């Protein structure tokens, strides 16, 4: 392991990822305590947003965990963590509308979402190869595993790069729809935006991490 290169490229990404995670958790918990005046649940907000966009074939279901919310385009299923499914907080409405934003992207054929979906299978394969890359390339410096690390992290970096516009566009759609439908009032909008902006930093951190590892393995391949 090139210690200096590791300290320069990788350690800062751990710090950024930790900071981003702490920020999203603290911001989410803050605004999950502030009830919206409308009293609408996250599930209802997602339903209203999707119906406004002409989407009537997406199932909204509760799932276990915290911040496990996601939209599954293959099953046309919008999954909300239980706190957000039945919650009426600003955080719940923001997260639910964000996931509904992905459903809208799917309906209109948003190109970045389609590209991310197409990259999904190869990205899953690359992710499963990470243990081989870490032990074979990072610790034992086997040249074949170092080159594999370059390929794996190149795929992950591209995937994370494409994820950025997908997530930020979904957040933009969410805030616009919540405001235009009257689900939240104008003075409640900053709380929703702060929740979604904090979540956005986790995607930035994931991209920076993948890019840093890619640069690390590229440098190692030239030694």
UniProtKB/TrEMBL annotation:
Keywords: Membrane, Transmembrane, Transmembrane helix. InterPro entries: Zn_peptidase_2 (IPR007395). Signal peptide: none annotated. The chain crosses the membrane at residues 6-25, 132-156, 198-219. PANTHER family: MEMBRANE PROTEASE YUGP-RELATED. This is Zinc metallopeptidase. The lineage of its organism: Bacteria, Pseudomonadati, Verrucomicrobiota, Opitutia, Puniceicoccales.
